[in-house]
Automatic annotation (TrEMBL):
The keyword Transmembrane applies. InterPro entries: DDB_G0292058-like. This is OSJNBa0033G05.10-like protein. The keyword Transmembrane helix applies.
Amino acid sequence: MEHELFAVAAVMAGLSILGFLFSVLGLRFLVSLLVIAAWILLTNTIISSGLFLLLHNVVADTCVAMGDWVAHPQAHTALDDILPCVDVATANESLYRSQEVTSQLVALVNNVVVNISNRNFPPGLRPLYFNQSGPLMPVLCNPFNPDMSPRRCAPGEVDFGSAAREWKRFECQTTGPPGSELCATPGRVTPAAYGQMTAATSVSKGLYEFSPFLVQLQDCSFVRETFTSITNYNCPGLEQYSRDVYVGLVVISAGVMLSVVFWMVHTRHRRRRAMRKQL
């Protein structure tokens, strides 16, 4: 934008100089053309100045509203209706419930792995028996203890990121109608069961990874951090920049307006003098 302002100032200065020369030389037609061009440019400059003044006021009001909301989180501010935040206790309860769901999904998947896939049932015990065989599948790591505190993965467990890849090695090729498939090759899980297990794992992974961020959105802590950064680092420079731009445009507009008035007055004065000499 700085280069555009310099270009506008240069054009306006050029018009002012040309208008002054043409008016001194008495070139009324060229002065009239310059007056028309100058008024067009002046109109555009004034409109641009008004837009930047509006931008400056919007930026200033927005920054004040964000700063007030950050400084007084319990008070009723202008942003409360736009950002309805819940209290910390409710947000923490939501996080706890999401952790419970994650832990329950992991337990469900591990129940299938331990009690079905890794068991060798007799052929008559359908549908638990599907000719599963081979090395045992690893269980899925539960990231939470029973009290929902963080838990480290035990040796032999697979985490959310590697579960699908590791379990793929235990998938068998099947024969038979859908719903009654039997493994035709060594393996501990059918393709259908593998798909269901990986889907449940993906849901657990999503809850585990994004629940803290969603809770930050819910209690507005993430928004508060963002607003603090904007008000401290972006607002001062943006307010100064928008103010400088519209002030510069106003100065340029005022200078061109005075130049146009001077051209018109000087040209009319020369025309009157010429008429007096003729008389």
